Amino acid sequence: MNNLAFLFYCFLLLPVGSFAQHKIPVLEQCTITQLKANSQIIIPVKKQVIPFREKIFVRFEELGEIYNPTFPETRHKISVYNFQQQGAGFLYLSKSLSTYRSSVMIYDTGLHYGVWTDGKCDSLMEYEVTRVGENLEITGKVYSCFYGS
Description:
globular
């Protein structure tokens, strides 16, 4: 009976152990500096003005044009890790996948970073979110590691 109790206990802890295996991505200033230095082109992000909400989903068409310009003929996946600058550090916000238009979830105003990859190289997007009246304004730059997929 002891063996059965031991196995039952192990199965109860299995989800906890697997959850602990997921590491939260980290962004450091040296990574930002390196991605900017290694970029082949710098593209300004089209200014977006959207109504303010507590949490909002924003698309950046520039990244779709860079990473997957022949959509829908090709459907290369783009992974993105999103961060918000907080003091000297960076708060991890989310990870998402996209096949064409890259998008992020914004929770607050301030300076944000997205580290984008299609598996070949990493690019950086730096964007500022400011509140102007009842709207959010989003501006920034894409530091792309290549001209197109």
